[in-house]
Design brief:
Length: 100
Amino acid sequence: MKKSILALSLSLGLMSLVQADALEDRYNRTCAVCHASGAAGAPRTGDVATWDKRLQEKGMDVLVANAKNGIRAMPPKGMCFDCSDEDFKALIEYMAKPKS
Ligand code: HEC
């Protein structure tokens, strides 16, 4: 019994690691092209103040919609053509976090 609980928590731990890796990988292939450097006025990854301001003024739903549809110099979908709404939300949360 104890063993199976251990195995379960181990595999759950591994799963979230894999998911975090996949997110980072996706970020690096798409959003990072502009958001890592702040090219063309893109809010920079890890710039918590700038992201917080946008999140407070517009809210997550509007940010997801603008990422999907594009806004000014930001192209529609930000190069992530297979991203779902959930993926955009996760990517925005990733960029809005302080960089570790
Ligand atoms: C080709 C460059 C480019 C890429 C790639 C890109 N962005 Fe952007 N993004 C921008 C620019 C430029 C802005 C600033 C737009 C403005 O407010 O004028 C921006 C702004 C945003 C905003 C704020 C929108 C708002 O309403 O304030 C979000 C959210 C966003 N990007 C999400 C993403 C996500 C998620 C990805 C990856 C899937 C991504 N971007 C990829 C250039 C890019």
